[in-house]
Amino acid sequence: MKFDIDTYKEIIDTITRNKGRSFLTGFGVFWGIFMLVALIGGGQGTKENISKNFEGFATNSAFIYPQATTKAYHGFRKGRSWGLTMQDVTRLKEQIPELTVVSPMLAKWGSIAYFGEKNISCSFKGLQPEYQKIEEPKLFYGRYINEMDVAQRRRVCVIGKKVYKTLFPGGGDPCGQKIRVDSSYYQVVGVDYSSGSVNIGGTAEETVAVPAALYQQLYNQGDNIDLLCITARAGAHMKDLMPRMREIIGRSHDVSPDDEKAITIINTEVMFGMLDSLFSGVNFLIWLVGIGTLLAGAIGVSNIMMVTVRERTTEIGIRRAIGATPKMILSQIITESILLTIVAGMSGILFAVFILQMLQLANTSDGIVSVHYQIRFWTAIGALILLSVLGVLAGLAPALRAMSIKPVDAMRDE
Q1: N or C: which end of the chain has fewer CB within 10 A?
Q2: Interatomic CA distance for residues 402 and 373, integer angstroms
Q3: How confident is the model at residue 1 (pLDDT cuts 50, 70, 90)?
Q4: How far is CA 131 from CA 146, 253, 402, in A?
């Protein structure tokens, strides 16, 4: 198709002839594409921000912890207190092959960690090495607790990000340094920079973790544990395994397997499923609102183009009389519609990208972007293609009306 600069000058002159009307018409498209792009970028940023709270956390996990019984069972009255033991770890591993990780946790909130003159309130946890398969650490320095630490009850610890920044404000590798938690000293072997907000015995940022066996020895807990952390293999659903877990644990502690409060199981698989469903619904709503607003703008363009064609009846008739073909009239009207739609739409995209960039800068610290609000490149290309299609559709009805104008009718209209 030959590019005719005079034709485009004429189109621009026609659009700018009534600036107020053209601006208001284009604003509908501008606002529609702005809403669509801003909502997509904002939705993605919000999803990323919420997902960071669960970063590194196993999506097919569950947590079991004991509470007072609510049902009488095997001659025991309701309201009885009971506790989990290390034997429960072995029982679950042996009797439910679908489980990949069964790791005990011992936790105590309100401990104070000290280094020099600095101190911070922390969550003190006793963990085993395989716990990192449930809540994956992001080691900034050093290593995680290993099997030798547990076997030899070594006085070592892994500290969270907030604990590290408070006790070591000058930065640097703290591994090899000794900190005090309450009345005992531990050598730092790792720094965990996980930022997740999942609160299982305390957040990762505020945790000082030591070998589980050492924790039991320090607090004279014998074989007792506070809760069990579990993951299932791929394809196995935790909700299908929960009755078997309750039965195994209940049988060992004379607790009714039907007493769901006594044997409380938190199924994170359900929580993550709800989160995915929530964002699917939000994405659908974003596209529905954005495209609906954009269509309203395109309809506005079509209506104004119809008015424009009506005002230019005489002009179009004269053009037809001196040799303009229907195809030329059709091309000019559709091109006017596309140009108006594209210019307004691209302005909306650029403005939305600017706003999203400001939001992204507001979530940047130390040169690191914590949340990304920008849209993907191909999303912008898709929006541009959508604008072009809407421009053609918006100009089609006015163009067909313009093609139907006969020179004689145009002179009569004059």
Answers
A1: N
A2: 44
A3: very low
A4: 10, 24, 73
Q: CB atoms < 10 A from the CB of 77, how many?
A: 9
For every residue of 10-49, DSSP letters joined together read HHHHHHHHTHHHHHHHHHHHHHHHHHHHHHHHHHHHHHHH
Of 144-153, 229-238, 277-286, which has the strongest mean pLDDT?
144-153
pTM for the whole structure: 0.64
Cα distance between residue 275 and residue 55, in whole Å: 13
The Cα 410–Cα 321 span in angstroms is: 10
Q: Do the beta carbons of residue 226 and residue 201 sit within 8 Å? A: yes
* Token couple for 225: 């544990």
Q: Is 254 helix (H, G, I), strand (E, B) or coil?
A: coil
Distance (Å, rounded) from C-alpha 322 to C-alpha 359?
A: 56
Cα end-to-end distance, the chain, whole Å: 34
User: At a CB cut-off of 8 Å and minimum separation 6, what does 344 contact?
Assistant: 25, 26, 27, 28, 29, 30, 33, 297
What DSSP assignment string belongs to 102-154? EEEEEEEEEEEEEETTEEEEEEEEEE-GGGGGTB---EEEE----HHHHHTT-
Least confident of 3-7, 24-28, 135-139, 397-401: 3-7
Q: What is the pLDDT of residues 58-69, one digit of tens each?
A: 678 888 889 999
Alpha-carbon separation of residue 200 from 123, 227, 246 (angstroms): 10, 10, 20
- Cβ atoms within 10 Å, residue 74: 10
Q: What DSSP state is assigned to residue 170? A: T
CA atoms of 137 and 158, how far apart (whole Å): 10
Instruction: Give 382-389 contacts, CB < 8 A, sequence gap 24+.
Output: 383/33, 383/36, 383/37, 383/345, 383/349, 384/342, 384/345, 384/346, 384/349, 386/294, 387/29, 387/33, 387/341, 387/342, 387/345, 387/346, 388/338, 388/341, 388/342
